[in-house]
Amino acid sequence: MKIFPKQELEAKLRRINGRGYKAYKEIQACYDFGLYLLHFDHIQGDPFASPSRVCIEISREKAGFSGSLDYNPARRLALEDYLARKFAQAIQKVKKSRSGSMGSGKSGLIEIDAGGQEVLKRTALVINDKKIEVRFFVGLPALGRTIASKFAQQIFFQEIPEIVKQSLLFQNLNPEELGKHLEVVEDWHLIQSQLKEKNLVAFVAQGSVLPRRSGVDDRPLTGAGVVKFESPPSLKIEMELSQGKKIFGMGIPKGVTLIVGGGFHGKSTLLEALSRGIYPHIPGDGREYVASLAGTVKIRAEDGRRIEKVDISAFISGLPFGKDTKKFSTDNASGSTSQSANIIEALEMGAEVLLLDEDTSATNFMIRDQRMQRLVAKEKEPITPFIDRVRELYERFGVSTILVMGGSGDYFDVADTVIQMDEYRPRDVSQKAKEIASQLPSQRLKETPEPFSFPAPRQPQRASFDASRGKREVKISAKGLKQILYGKTTIDLSALEQLVSTSQTRAVAQLIYFYSQRYLERYSSLPQGIDALFQDLEKFGLDFAVPYRTGDLAMPRKFELAGAINRMRTLRIK
Asked: What ranges make up the beta strands (E) of 139-240?
């Protein structure tokens, strides 16, 4: 790769000033700014099109970052995340100092994918042992569709050097703030790594702040009325952190756990924190030390979803007109069939913990009480309710369940642990629940016509993954957090609640295609192919799966990738 002096960029910008926008293509190259290299990876074709992809490459030595800062993968993840956020903050400072607009469309935009409350592995900033790469986006300035070089020179010769100076040089950063960021992410990983050895599925630290500001603001709730989390004495456990420190909090044991309590007392808030506990969080989030097992999957009913050859017979069998539930397919699932399929698909991918909230579950899937059993005989009811499978899932297959339940005490019979939320304070009422269950027997009959059989892995057909649209051989894009356009089909991800970033959705969209091209036919089942793909992503990063350098992807989990594939309306299983 040829590297030009920065004066060459300056000369090119002067030469193309006032020309048509496509003349910006002439600057696509790499330029040496002394402290760093500036790469133009992609030049937008129009001021209203997606902004240009730009990359800064700076050596660790010049930036002042010694290898002792990120001596393990958790700390490197934290360092990448921290620097991306500082880069984003520096962009905002620089943009505030501007006077007026830089032109039409996206002219003057400078943007980096720095993330929200969670710390995710992103392509926006990548560090190795020798250098730091920052991938970001710039809207090349134009007046109408005429190049405005004066503004472009301001961006590349004044603003970006200042952004680099403020965010990528160790000497200009706050060492205490940086150290805290690295420490919090490293400690979260240490907590998560101790869960299995302590026979736990999740941990919530003392003093955590779980409530959020609103449904659209994921920052912690603030103010005098905020209740900090405090573990019941019987569930209190100690975790070891880095540098010999220790932390206390509530450990949720393996098995079947109920979260009960009155409305608006914090049941769903706790479950949501556990759902997000699969990710580390930034300092100050309130959930920094909430950790769940990596294989924790949130399950809900999903009316209208497509299901393709999923064996839901453990939950639903004997449908009218002889419809097969061992290879169940439908274009318009009900609440109970969708929830059954969601559980089976999660188990197929190796889920360790299921999270369910009665508010988002199908009532007839969760429970059939004694009175309904008497009125509607079992031979007329195809559903085996979840209450009759939940212990079997744990005792035979080691799959734990955490369930928010405010309406049915019949679940006391199958629970190992019962946590009551009382004004956002947890109480261990397991013993009391057992006493109530013995004093007031439910008298409902267990409805399990045959033992649960673990789902056999399925294999998609290649024809499922046609990504063409019109004249484009491959047309894939994410439309926000919960929707993917894949070729001619739309994939609805609204039920995959553990997707937290649009950058993850973009990565899922790319990985569906990459899986279909590289792994589908090399492996005999969907789980084997996706597991192999994620082993490679762990080694090589998301860049491995994308044919060009980009800064707008974040690592999803295998469960969300499989979930997206399972929701493709073009999916066909062999």
From this structure: 142-143, 146-147, 200-205, 212-214, 217-220, 236-240
Q: Would 247 be classed as within a structural domain?
A: no
Secondary structure (3-state) at 448: coil
Of residues 555, 574, 436, the one with CA closest to residue 500: 555
Q: Check whether residue 533 and residue 487 sit in a common domain.
A: yes
Phi, psi of 318 (to 5 degrees): 70, 40
Q: How many whole angstroms separate alpha carbon 394 and alpha carbon 201? A: 12
For the chain, the distance separating the N- and C-terminal CA atoms, rounded to the nearest angstrom, is 46
Report yes or no on 448 lying in a domain.
Answer: no
CA of 59: how far to CAs of 65, 218, 410, 457, 474, in Å? 9, 35, 62, 46, 36
Give the residue among 117, 163, 118, 154 at the shortest CA–CA distance from 136: 163
Query: Is 25 part of a structural domain of the chain?
Result: yes
- Spatial separation of the C-alpha atoms in residues 35 and 164, rounded to whole Å: 9
- The structural domain count of the chain equals 3
Of 504, 505, 525, the residue nearest 515 (C-alpha): 525
Pair (167, 36) in one structural domain: yes
Tokens at residue 11, please? 């000369």
277 is a domain residue: no
Q: Is 22 helix (H, G, I), strand (E, B) or coil?
A: helix
Q: Are 109 and 38 members of one domain?
A: yes
Q: How far apart are CA 492 and CA 568, in angstroms?
A: 8
Q: Show the domain range for 127.
A: 3-173
Band (279; pLDDT cuts 50, 70, 90): very high
CA gap 368, 445 in Å, rounded:
9
Together in a domain, 390 and 469? no
Q: What is the pLDDT of residues 89-105, one digit of tens each?
A: 999 999 999 988 999 99
Q: Does 84 lie in the same domain as 147?
A: yes
**Residue 435 shares a structural domain with residue 466:** no
For residue range 359-383, list pLDDT tens digits in order.
999 999 999 888 888 888 787 788 9
Backbone angles phi, psi at 427, to 5 degrees: -130, 135
The pTM assigned to this predicted structure is 0.96
Phi, psi for residue 20 in degrees, rounded to 5: -65, 155
